[in-house]
Amino acid sequence: MKNVWKTISRSTRTAKFGLVVMALWIIVAVLAPxxxxxxxNDIDIAQRLAxxxxxxxxxxxxxxxxxxxxxxxxTRLIYxxxxxxxxxxxxxxxxxxxxxxxxxxxxxxxxxxxxIISRMIDVMLAFxxxxxxxxxxxxxxxxxxxVIIVLGITGWVPYARTIRxxxxxxxxxEFVKAANAIGCRDLRIIxxxxxxxxxxxxxxxxxxxxxxxxxxxxxxxFLGLGIPPxxxxxxxxxxxxxxxxxxxxxxTTIPGIALLIGCLSINFVGDWLxxxxxxxxRGVD
Length: 285
Known about the structure:
Layout: H1 2-9, H2 13-30, H3 32-35, H4 73-109, H5 111-126, H6 129-140, H7 144-154, H8 157-170, H9 174-181, H10 186-222, H11 234-241, H12 250-277
Helix pairs in contact: 2-4, 2-12, 4-5, 4-7, 4-8, 4-10, 6-7, 8-10, 9-10, 10-11, 10-12, 11-12
């Protein structure tokens, strides 16, 4: 733990900013039912489109204002943070598992297996990521589970490409050749010898992928192909507020800013992890 705090204390300002934002984000998401000022389904038509507290007619009762149904924007923003984290982390984990396994298999066995997986990667790269996700969500239907599945099965390509390239190098190392020489099984070599050598890259990619998945979910939801409107998400908040952008701009601006800051903080942390975990980028004391 001491080494962890020492590493954090020596990190850049952007990394510290990202870590603080992510920590607060996680705390808010976990404690949403406790810290949210209102119930997420509370509707008060008499208070519809109430401006934020800092505007002329705003009140402290609704610090960030209300939406077209009189629902508290701060409450929906807090609950929406949970959906964003769930989608980002779970979809990233699904993509990581698929990509790492395929990358390990392709890099280690080579030959026809490598050729097949490489062609699969080429096919996936031939389609824009968001376009492919839109097609799959439209086919499967709009739901939180389907969005996670789609983002997971379309997000494995960067992991597979990176891990495959690293495995091609690692499998030529002496410790892998020694394991082969004494008759270790292939699966043991892959998961006991090679995987620990490439897992850092997967973790770094996974951190970056969380932000990518959050943005993708918001984009799909904004287009009406993601999570149903009945569920409070940042993408739904932006989509619902676009019809009132000229007289109630906070409905789109506030969740948009939250999305921007959240994804930036994730990228800052990912850059920091890359610098810390990659020996070629790490400073020498």
